[in-house]
Write a structure and sequence with these properties.
The chain has helices at about 45-55, 95-105, 110-125, 140-150, 170-185, 200-205, 220-225, 230-235; strands at about 10-15, 20-30, 35-40, 60-65, 70, 80-85, 160, 190-195, 205-210, 215-220, 240-250, 255-260, 265, 275-280, 285, 295-305, 310-315, 320-325, 340-345, 350. By secondary structure, it is an alpha+beta fold. It has two domains: about 10-235, P-loop containing nucleotide triphosphate hydrolases (Rossmann fold, 3-Layer(aba) Sandwich); about 240-350, OB fold (Dihydrolipoamide Acetyltransferase, E2P) (Beta Barrel). Strands 6-7-8-3-9-10 form a six-stranded mixed beta sheet, sandwiched between helices. The chain has a five-stranded antiparallel beta sheet with strand order 13-12-11-14-20. Strand 9 and strand 10 (about 215-220) form a beta hairpin. The longest helix is centred in the middle third of the chain and has 18 residues, at about 170-185. About 35% of the residues are buried. It is a peripheral membrane protein. It is an enzyme of class 3 (hydrolase). Pfam families: ABC_tran, TOBE_2. GO terms for molecular function: ABC-type transporter activity; ATP binding; ATP hydrolysis activity.
Length: about 350
C-alpha cells in the first residue's frame, strides 16, 4: 500500500471568492514524506489552501506541483490526493467494509483485488474485526479510522487532513493524533494537516506554516516558530507570549532595552531593531534574591495552581505578565496584592 513519497510545491498561489481574495501569494515547498501542518485562526485561509490542493473550490492563480506535476487546474479526481474531512463523510447505510471499498469500486479496480486491499487498509488502522459493522455502531475515534482507511486504500500520492480531530473529546484527540502520526510514518506519505490547535501542530508536525489573512506569516519547525517568531502575530498565536514595549538603546558595552516603568534590561550586542520584547512565561521568574542583573518590579494580580507549576498574573512593565513558576512542595505561594521582584531571562527574549 505504501507509495513513494512526493514533494509538494506551491508557487505564487492566489485564490478569490468573488471579489474577496482569500489566499495571497502563497509560496512553499513540502518535502517528500513530511508531516506538515497549516496552522491559523478561523478565516486565516488554512482550509482554503488545503482545499485548493485537493481541487475543491474556485480555480486558483499560480501553480500547485505534486511530484513535479502541476495539478492546479485539474479536477479533483485526476489529482490522486486523499482527503479526510472534519465530518468523516461516511456512508451511513454502508458497512465499514463497503465504505472502504467504495473508492476502489469507483476506480474500477478488479474485484479480486478489492477485498485484499480493503482488509489490508482496515488492518492498518486496527479495525478489521469491525469490518461488518455500520458507522452508527462505531465510536468517533473508530469512525475517524474508517475515514482514514477509505482514503489510504486508494493509494494516494498525498494525504490531506482537514481538522480530523475536532469532533473528538480532549482525551481521545491526544490518542488519535499519536495514531495519525504513527500511521503516516508507516505509509511514508507526504501529509498536510490543517488545525487551529497549536498543541496538535506542535506534537505532530515536522514543519508548519502559520497563516493569517490568507498570507503565510512564518514557516519552520514548531520549535523554531515558538522560540524565534517572525512577528507579534506568530508570537501570540503560538503559545502564551508576554509583550513588553520599550526602547532599544545601543551602546559600546552592549544593548539595553528601557521599558515604560524606567527599568532597564540588558540584551545581546546583536539585537535587531524593535520596540517590543517577547518573553514566554517560563522566561520570567519571581525571585527573592535581589542579585540579578535584569530585575523588574510588579504586583501579583492572580494565581492559578496547575500541579507541576503555578501560573501568576503580575502587573509590571506597563503590562500584565504571565509567569509560570515551578511548583515545589512546602514553598509558600505569592499572594494577590503582593509586590514581587522578577528576573528576566533576556537570552531567550525576542525583539520585534
Amino acid at each position: 500500500m505504501t507509495r513513494k513519497a512526493v514533494e509538494i510545491r506551491i508557487e505564487d498561489l492566489h485564490l478569490s471568492f468573488g471579489t474577496t481574495e482569500v489566499l495571497r501569494g502563497v509560496n512553499m515547498t513540502i518535502e517528500p514524506g513530511e508531516f506538515y501542518a497549516f496552522l491559523g485562526p478561523s478565516g486565516s485561509g488554512k482550509s482554503t489552501l488545503l482545499r485548493a490542493i485537493a481541487g475543491f473550490g474556485p480555480t486558483p492563480r499560480g501553480r500547485i506541483l505534486i511530484g513535479g506535476r502541476d495539478i492546479a487546474k485539474l479536477p479533483p479526481w485526476k489529482r490522486n490526493v486523499g482527503m479526510v474531512f472534519q465530518s468523516y463523510a461516511l456512508w451511513p447505510h454502508m458497512s465499514v467494509r463497503a465504505n472502504v471499498a467504495f473508492g476502489l469500486e469507483e476506480r474500477k479496480v478488479a474485484r479480486k483485488d478489492i477485498g485484499t486491499r480493503v482488509e489490508s487498509a482496515l488492518e492498518l488502522v486496527g479495525l478489521l474485526h469491525l469490518a461488518d459493522r455500520m458507522p452508527s455502531q462505531l465510536s468517533g475515534g473508530q469512525q475517524q479510522r474508517v475515514a482514514l482507511a477509505r482514503t489510504v486504500v486508494v493509494e494516494p500520492d498525498v494525504l490531506l487532513l482537514d481538522e480530523p480531530l475536532s469532533n473528538l473529546d480532549a482525551s481521545l484527540r491526544i490518542q488519535m493524533r499519536r495514531e495519525l502520526l504513527s500511521l503516516q510514518r508507516k505509509l511514508g506519505l507526504t501529509t498536510i494537516f490543517v488545525t487551529h490547535d497549536q498543541e496538535e501542530a506542535n506534537t505532530t508536525a515536522d514543519r508548519m506554516a502559520v497563516l493569517d489573512g490568507g498570507v503565510i506569516q512564518q514557516m519552520g519547525t514548531p520549535q523554531e516558530l515558538y522560540d524565534t517568531p517572525a512577528n507579534l502575530f506568530v508570537a501570540k498565536f503560538l503559545g502564551t507570549a508576554n509583550i513588553i514595549d520599550g526602547t532599544l538603546q545601543r551602546g559600546d558595552g552592549g544593548n539595553t532595552f528601557k521599558i515604560a516603568s524606567g527599568e532597564v534590561l540588558h540584551l545581546g550586542a546583536g539585537s535587531p531593531d524593535g520596540s517590543s520584547l517577547v518573553l514566554r512565561p517560563q522566561n520570567i521568574e519571581i525571585v527573592t534574591d535581589q542579585n540579578h542583573p535584569d530585575l523588574i518590579t510588579g504586583k501579583v494580580k492572580h494565581r492559578e495552581f496547575l500541579g507541576s507549576q503555578t501560573r501568576y498574573l503580575v502587573e509590571a512593565a506597563g503590562s500584565e505578565l504571565i509567569i509560570d513558576q515551578k511548583h515545589v512542595g512546602g514553598v509558600d505561594w505569592y499572594e494577590p496584592g503582593m509586590e514581587v521582584k522578577m528576573s528576566v531571562n533576556t537570552r531567550n527574549a525576542v525583539l520585534l
